[in-house]
Specification:
The structure holds 2 protein chains of 2 kinds. By secondary structure, chain A is an alpha/beta fold. Chain A folds into 6 domains: 56 residues, no CATH class; 90 residues, 3-Layer(aba) Sandwich (Glutaredoxin), CATH 3.40.30; 200 residues, Rossmann fold; 76 residues, Ubiquitin-like (UB roll), CATH 3.10.20; 86 residues, de novo design (two linked rop proteins) (Up-down Bundle), CATH 1.20.1440.230; 29 residues, no CATH class. In chain A, 41% of the residues lie in helices and 12% in strands. Chain A is built from 25 helices and 15 strands. In chain A, α9 runs antiparallel to α10 and α12 packs across α15. Chain A is globular and about 90 Å long. Chain A starts with a helix and ends in a 9-residue tail after the last helix. In chain B, the strands form 3 sheets. A 5-stranded mixed β-sheet of chain B has the order 2-1-5-3-4, covered by helices on one side. The two termini of chain B are 23 Å apart. The longest helix of chain B has 17 residues. Chain B is α+β, with helices and mostly antiparallel strands. Chain B has 2 domains: 73 residues, Roll (Ubiquitin-like (UB roll)), CATH 3.10.20; 121 residues, 2-Layer Sandwich (Alpha-Beta Plaits). The chains are: A alpha/beta, B alpha+beta. Chains A and B meet through α4, α18, α19 and α20 of A and α2 and β8 of B.
Chain lengths: 604, 235
């Protein structure tokens, strides 16, 4: 510990000993020492002018931070259901065998730690894992011995990238084996566009006029909630405050979603242009991109883009000669927490605290980051806004449906021939999309990820839009070969893992839901258990505090609604009249162990 | 702007003041909205969700939601009563609450809520989690088995005691109250006369050596149900 003191002090000093940069400090301590030692909590607190327990509070919240010594290389195997269906469990077994350790353990030589993690945004090239910040995609058990041997001989995981993926994945600052998998572009985002024309046009107008244009376009937030972007900017502009902020939500954590990954790789300038337009509208001088820890491999590339824009006077002071328009952007790295995609959690995290959501009165547009008026916008919304400024609100509003204007990027994964990103006009029928992605034999589509809805063929004629099938981008396809309740249970596991635990219904209710669903899946449930799931799910939905909790019972509620026969087949009433939830064999197991002999009456 | 505004709770029009929360406005006219994490001396945080009411058709925690003129609020609907009951049940099964030999029995707000809601046994299965008991402090006992994560101690220490003894650590079901010391509560600057030592609604933070000073039968909720003091207020 004593040897660490100067280094830790230097790290804290690098971030100005500013308590609001605590996330950056503990992240860097983690990177330097492969953990944040408990003995260092007090020192970090002292340096950052806070309390020891506050440091523990942050470190214990994020899954990429650990107070236990980890290896120089941390392997995080993606444990999403899509990856499982593509064979991640066999990959996991191969990893355990080659490394000689289980999940959550570190090799005896202290070099490699093996963990599982929630969706890392690579569902179109699953199974995938991270080796530190490096993405390793399209895994098979056969590839594992070589990968492990390489990591043992060279602890720099970057060496695993033999051949980079397409597009900017080959940029020296990215150099990732990730593929974009852009299957179909659309008129708004994934087509040729006039770089920074939207920003230049915006700067010829007053901020109020730009806001009017964005409002007139009908642009709604692409993260899923669908709030009118122009209206959000207007509220932020009108809120009193000397300083205002624009935050870009690049914490794309919804399992099955990866469209922001592609935008940050292929349209980074458009994202930054959109942020600059937003800053101009609301009067912000500082922007923050909250980048999920899983996308750390894009950080240097994005920083390079920021520098290029500073040099071109697209960022900095008096942008493009516009006297008094000063704006710059910093990147805030996340550290593994799905809830931080919720805007108030994201703000908490940017302020260097644990990512608990906060109450939405006041709303962030009134009192957000540093209690100043803040507009939090999705990556895709910002791209749309820049394009609206160039092409005009009328052009944008003519695409899509009346209440859902423009196009939507979909991340399609699962059982189909062409997983990847598709840009489609709102209103496009699900059936049409399934055809284009090469999905036949479809039992169900999870629209919007675990927090969305699982729908069956009776909904395939509906369109993608805020008024029909709403999605932040995720579109997971499951064939008739899949156990849909295995999917639902995996999603409940996800919410149990990702609940921040702040409020009772989400913290406890999800555990109860997951356990009871598990029992039903084992054939130990009755119709009464289904009613129990419905009642409990309603309470979690109605009583939870934030968007995570309010949507967390959806895997259970939407399958109960749309796939009731699957449940009914599992809960046939027993002919003997016994309560199926009571398993006498299991009930006497513990007693048998204690007694050291099996039960005379009840044994297998 | 006039000083008062009008809101409706369960069909009854009441006057409220600007800046009040729904809970405060209801309290002032003798309408009891059940609550647990809320405390009149502390900033509200809306973590237990027991005080959830429907505001113009949307669920909101009454302790944090400011009143606005014309709000239509539902409080005692069968649906809300059921949801609240479910949440109270959840708090019992997520910890290890043994009322019959808990020092707090009779003074415990969770137990009192359960009685008010007619709960004799929780409908959910007990989770029996393994929790720690921290007896390191000379005057105060911290029994995590009974914690409901209301964070009253966190707030009281910061807001009333000018200290920072407690903070939430971990996340999800493993979330718990951490202490600002190397190992345990005994390493902190907590004192027995801190407000934080007296503000726990359950038996998680209790003082040593004063157990059963007030006999069972003469405790706060032994004679009147929780909320009676508020319901006794005349508007």
């Amino acid at each position: 510990m004593n040897k660490m003191v100067p280094a830790i002090k230097a790290i804290c000093e690098k971030y100005g000993n500013d308590r609001a940069r605590l996330m950056d400090m503990v992240r860097e301590v983690q990177d330097t020492f492969d953990h944040v030692p408990r003995e260092a909590f007090g020192l970090i607190a002292e340096e950052a002018n806070t309390h020891r327990v506050e440091v523990e509070s942050v470190v214990s919240f994020y899954s990429f931070l650990s107070d236990k010594q980890q290896g120089a290389v941390v392997i995080r195997l993606c444990d999403d259901i899509i990856d499982r269906f593509q064979g991640s469990e066999a990959v996991g077994e191969a990893l355990q065998k080659e490394l000689g350790i289980g999940f959550g353990e570190t090799t005896a030589d202290g070099k490699i730690t093996l963990e599982k993690t929630a969706c890392i945004g690579m569902s179109d090239q699953a199974p995938a894992m991270m080796a530190n910040d490096v993405m390793v995609t399209n895994l098979t058990p056969e590839k594992i011995p070589d990968i492990v041997a390489q990591l043992k001989s060279n602890p720099d995981p970057q060496a695993l990238v033999a051949e980079p993926g397409d597009g900017n994945n080959a940029d020296p600052l990215v150099n990732a084996m990730v593929d974009n998998n852009i299957r179909e572009g659309g008129p708004v985002i994934l087509s040729d566009y006039r770089k920074d024309a939207g920003l230049r046009k915006a700067l010829t107008q007053t901020p109020e006029e730009v806001i009017e244009d964005v409002k007139a376009s009908g642009l709604r937030g692409r993260g899923g909630a669908g709030f009118l972007t122009g209206f959000k900017w207007e509220l932020t502009r009108k809120s009193a405050g000397a300083e205002k902020f624009v935050l870009c939500n690049a914490d794309e954590g919804e399992p099955g979603t990866f469209k922001d990954r592609v935008l940050l790789t292929e349209r980074p300038d458009l994202v930054l242009e959109g942020m600059t337009v937003a800053a101009y509208c609301i009067g912000a001088e500082t922007g923050i991109i909250y980048l999920r820890a899983e996308y750390a491999y894009l950080r240097k590339f994005l920083e390079g883009k920021l520098n290029q824009r500073r040099e071109a006077n697209l960022l900095g002071n008096n942008i493009l000669g516009n006297e008094g328009f000063n704006f710059d952007i910093r990147i805030q790295m996340g550290a593994g927490a799905y809830v931080c995609g919720e805007e108030t959690s994201l703000i908490s995290s940017c302020e260097g605290t644990r990512g608990d959501p906060t109450d939405r009165t006041p709303f962030p547009v009134v009192a957000g980051y540093m209690v100043a008026p803040t507009s939090v916008n999705n990556v895709e919304s910002l791209c749309c806004a820049a394009r609206i400024m160039d092409m005009g609100p009328g052009w944008f509003a003519a695409i899509g449906t009346k209440r859902s204007t423009g196009t939507k990027l979909l991340s399609v994964c699962g059982d189909c021939e062409r997983p990847g990103v598709y840009e489609v006009p709102f209103g496009t029928k699900l059936q049409d999309i399934l055809q284009r992605v090469g999905a036949t034999d479809v039992a169900a589509v999870q629209v919007g990820g675990p927090s969305g809805q699982m729908v069956g063929p009776s909904c395939f004629q509906q369109g993608i839009s805020y008024e029909e099938l709403s999605t932040g981008g995720a579109m997971m396809i499951f064939s008739n070969q899949r156990d849909l309740l295995e999917v639902a249970e995996a999603f409940m596991e996800f919410f149990v893992d990702e609940s921040c635990g702040y409020c009772v219904p989400c913290r406890v209710g999800n555990v109860l839901l997951k356990n009871r669903l598990g029992r039903v899946r084992q054939g130990e449930g009755s119709q009464e258990d289904l009613a129990y799931l419905e009642r409990l799910g309603e309470s979690v939905k109605k009583m939870s505090r934030c968007g995570l909790g309010q949507t967390s019972p959806n895997p259970v509620l939407s399958t109960l609604k749309n796939f009731r026969p699957v449940y009914n087949a599992l809960v046939k009433e027993s002919k003997t009249g016994f309560n199926p939830s009571f398993n006498i064999m299991r009930a006497v197991e513990e007693a048998s162990t204690i007694a050291g002999r099996r039960s005379e009456i009840f044994h297998a | 702007m006039s000083d008062t505004l009008t809101i409706t709770i369960d069909g009854k029009e009441i006057e409220a003041k600007h800046g009040q929360t729904i809970l405060e406005a209801a309290d002032a006219v003798g309408i009891y909205i059940p609550r647990l994490c809320s405390h009149p001396d502390l900033k509200p945080i809306g973590s237990c969700r027991v005080c959830t009411v429907m505001v113009d058709g949307r669920p909101q925690a009454a302790c944090v939601k400011p009143v606005m003129d014309g709000m239509v609020i539902e409080n005692e609907t069968p649906e809300l009563l059921q949801h609240r009951r479910n949440i109270i049940d959840m708090m019992f099964v997520e910890g290890n609450h043994f009322c019959m030999f808990c020092e707090k029995s009779g003074n415990c707000e969770l137990q009192a809520l359960a009685y008010r809601f007619g709960i004799t046994a929780p409908q959910y299965p007990f989770q029996f989690p393994e929790k720690e008991v921290d007896a390191s402090h000379p005057d105060i006992l911290l029994d995590h088995n009974r914690c409901v994560m209301c964070a009253r101690c966190v707030r009281a220490s910061q807001e009333l005691d000018g200290k920072n003894v407690f903070q939430s650590i971990g996340r999800g079901f493993d979330r718990k109250i951490g202490v600002n010391g190397e190992r345990a509560l005994g390493d902190t600057d907590m004192a027995a006369d801190d407000r934080a030592a007296d503000i726990c609604p359950v038996g998680c933070i209790i003082k040593k050596r004063i157990g059963f000073e007030t006999p069972v039968g003469e405790r706060i909720y032994d004679t009147e149900p929780i909320g009676s003091d508020i319901e006794g207020v005349q508007a």
